[in-house]
Prior knowledge:
7-stranded mixed sheet; alpha/beta
Amino acid sequence: MGAEDVPxxxxxxxxxxxxxxxxxxxxxxxxxxxxxxxxHLWDEYLSANQRCSIAAGLGVGDDExxxxxxxxxxxxxxxxxxxSGFQFxxxxxxxxxxPVFRADAGTMTADRMGHDVAGLKAAExxxxxxxxxxxxxYGAAARIAEIIGGHHGRFHRPDDTGGDDPFLGxxxxxxxxxxxxxxxxxxxxxxxxxxxxxxxxxxxVTGVVILxxxxxxxxxxLRRRQQSLEASLEAHFVRSCADAAGLLAExxxxxxxxxxxxxxxxxxxxxxxxxxxRSVMEELPGAVGGGGRGGILLVTAAPGDGxxxxxxxxxxxxxxxFGTRGLAFLLxxxxxxxxxxxxxxxxxxxxxxxxxxxxxxxxMAWLNDAYSDDDLAAGTPVVTCDGDERAVGRERAExxxxxxxxxxxxxxxxLAQFTVxxxxxxxxxxLPVRHNALRLLALSxxxxxxxxxHAYDPYMQVLLARLLNWLGAYGVPVVLLSAxxxxxxxxxxxxxxxxxxxxxxxxxxQLSFPxxxxxxxxxxxxxxxxxxxxxxxxxxxxxxQAQAVERSMALRVQVEPVTHxxxxxxxxxxxxxxxxxxxxxxxxxxxxxxxxxxxxADAQETYQALRARxxxxxxxxxxxxxxxxxxxxxxxxxxxxxxxxxxxxxxGPRPVRRIVVATQVVEQSLDLDADLVISDLAPLAxxxxxxxxxxxxxxxxxxRTRADGPSRPAWAGEPVLVVLDxxxxxxxxxxxxGEVYTEHLLAATSAAVAAxxxxxxxxxxxxxxxxxxxxxxxxEPVDWEALDARGRTAWSAxxxxxxxxxxxxxxxxxxxxxxxxxxxxxHSLPGEEDEWETATRLGAESARLLCVYLHPDGRTxxxxxxxxxxxxxxxxxxxxxxxxRAVMRRTVPVRGTWFSGEDRERLAPxxxxxxxxxxxxxxxxxxxxxxxxxxxxxxxxxxxHLDEDLGLVRQ
Length: 955
C-alpha cells in the first residue's frame, strides 16, 4: 500500500478556533472522533425502541451489534466531503497542506459548494471501493451518501448535485477519499454492508451523526486533542472512545435512572391517588404488550382530575415496557409550559433526579424566573466551517435540576432526557426545516406526552397527526391528555400513530377507538393475538365509575342575553349584566368569581368597570379585582399568573373577596377554583374548559383539609357557569371579536347552551356528549334546509376554513414515514429552511413590542421612573446577556398585522441591537413622558400605550 493509500494528515478537518501555532486538526482524526461518539451514543443515549427501529431499518433483525457498527460508520464518514476544494477555504489549513494537494488549488476552487453536498456526491464512489453496492437507488451506499449530505441539517436531492465536479478533484483526491473511508471502516471492525436502509431509520441515524459531530466539535475538546495527537490512528480511536463518556456527561445527556417513589412522595400531593390515577398505575401495566412496537394512551377526564399526574405515572409503565429514557411533556402555551415545568422539576427532584437533564423548551423559556442572569453566558462554541453552531445561553432549570451549559445552545434543549415546553417545538420535527432529523431523534427516545390535545386548530391537528405517524414508526409510547376531545379527532390521531407503526390504512378504516369518559384507552401498536388489528384496552368499568363519582358535579348553566353596543337597553348591556351577577361578591358577602373574556380589550374594559365599583386599588397594589391576559410584559404576566393561581389554588390562602378578569389564558392547565364562573360566549368545548375552574377543588377539599381562608359564601349554593350570549334573541357576533371564533361554532354553541339554560349538567357524565353535539361527527353534516341564509353562510365559511387549514398543513408537512423515498423529501422548501421560514400555527405571525419611555431631557429608559437606560453596545461590542434579558422580559407579544412596513421602520430597534438574534427583531415603542405620564403613540390608525395596571392598551 503506497503513501497515497493511507490517510494524509495534512488534510484537515477543523481549523477555526483552534491553536494557530499548531497545524489544523486532521480530518481523519475528526472522523474517528465522530465514529467513537456515535458508538457511545448507541450504547448510552439511544433508547431501546430507537436501537430496535434502526436495526430493523437496516435489515439486521436482532443483530444490534451490526446496526451499531453501521451507525458508527455513517458518523465516521460524515465529513468525507471535506476532501475537496474545501481544503483551500482556510488560509491556515491551506498553508499546512502537503504540496501535492496545494497544486490543485486553482482548478478545485473555481466553483464552491458546501462540503455536505460534496460528501453526498463523492461518498458512493468511495464506498464502492469497499465493495458496497452502488446500483440500488435506496441501498446502503445511497443512504449513507444522503446522511453525509444531510449532516448539516438539510437533506439534498442527489440528482441536483450533478456528476463529476472540479470541486471534488481527481487522482490523489479520489484515492484519499477511499483511504479515509477505508481507515474508518477498518477501525470499526470492517462492518458488512447493511442489507437495506429504510428512510425512517436513515433519519434517526442522521440525527445521531449530527449530535455526534456537535459533541466532538467543541472548541475546548478539539484544542486538547490538537495539542497531544497520538502516534497512531488506532491509539487515537481508543482515546476517542474513552473520551466519549465524559463529553456526553458534560453535555448533560447521560441518562439518569430515577429512584421511583410512591405517588404522594413523587408529586408532593397529600393523600392517595384518585381512581383514574390508580387505574393507570394498576391496570395499565397489564394492557401494555411486549411486542416492542410502542402504543398510544388517551386519557380523558374533566379539568382538575389529575391528568398530568396520571400521565407521569403512565410514563413509568410505558418507559419500562419500551425502554424510553425520559419524557417530553408538551403543552399549548408558554404560560402552561412554565407552570408544568415546575411540577415536573419537583417530581424529578423528589425521585433523586438531580443529575437529570431537564429543559424548558419554548422561544422565551430563558426568561422564566427559574433562570438567572449568570447562566445566560454562552457555552463552548461548536467549531464548524460552514456557519458556526454557536451556543446561545438560554436554558437553565432551578438549582438542583440545572441542565449542563451545552444544552442551552440553539436547537439542543429537546435532546435533554426530560423536556417540558410548547407543542410547537415538537411539531417542527415534521416541518421541512433544517435539523428536523435532530428533533425526531430527540423526541423518539422519550415518552411523548401532549396535554390539552383538544386545544389545537385543524392546521395543528394535521401536524400533530403527522408527528404521531413518525413516532409510531419508531415505536415511541405516546400519551394524549384531554378534557374535551371529540371522538373523531382522537380516532384520527390514534389511527395516524398506528399507520406509522405499520398497520394498513384500509384495515384501520374499518376500526374505531372510542375512549371512555372519564378514563383511559390504550392501543398497543402490536397486533392482537389471532387478529390483524391492534389490541385496545380501556379502564375498567369499576375504576371509571369510581372516578366519575369522585369528581362528580352538578353544574348549573345560566344563559344571560347581552349586548355590546352603548345604544342598547341598559339592562342588557354586558357590563351591567356582569355587575348584577357579581352583586353578592361586591356588596359584602365575599367569595371568588372568575370572569373570562374573549378579547383583551373586553377584559381591560371589564376590569376597569369592576375596579371602579369594587376596589379602587390596582392588581399590583393588592386590590380585590385582578386582571390577567397575554398583553403584559413577560415579567409582569409571570407575577400576575403566580398571584392569581396562588389566591385561587388548592392550598390557599383563599381570599375573602376576589374577582379575576381574564382572557383565554385561564382555559388550560391553570389550577384555579372559583365560586362562580362568568364567560363570554365561546365554542362549547372551551366553555366546558372554563367551567372546569368552577368549584374545581370542592370534592378534593371534602375529603381532605380545605385551603386556608373562608369557605364558600352563602350565595354560592352550587357551581354555576353563566354564559354571556350576544346571539340570544337574534343578536349577532360582536364586530370587535373579529375571527377569534367562527360564527358557525358560536351559533351552534348558543343553541346548545340555550337548551341547557336553567338546568344542571352532570360532570363528567354529560361532558363528552355535549362536546360531540357541537364539535364532533354528530354535528356534521348540518341540516342545510333548517339553516337560514346567514346560517348557511356561517357554516360554509367555517367548513371552508377548516378544510383550508387541513389542506395547508398537508402541503407543508413532511411526508408520512412510510412514504419517504429519498430523504430530500424532508426538505421541500426553498431557502435555508430554518424555523422561522414556516409556521406551526396559522395566523400566528407575531411581533415582540418593547414599550420604553422618552423623557423630556431626551433620555430613553426601560422604566417610567427613568432609572434604567435603554441598553446599548459600543462599537464592536455585544449587548450583554443580562441586558438582553432585561429587554426581553419587558416585551409584549402582539399581532404582527398591527404594523405596516412604515411602522416597522419607525419602531426599529437601536442599531447596536442589529446583530443579536432576539433584539434585532424587537419593535420599540417610544412613549413620550409628559408630567410623569406616558403618552399614547399612533400606530396604523390606532393608539398604543403600556399601562402599568391594564397592560398594553390599543384604542
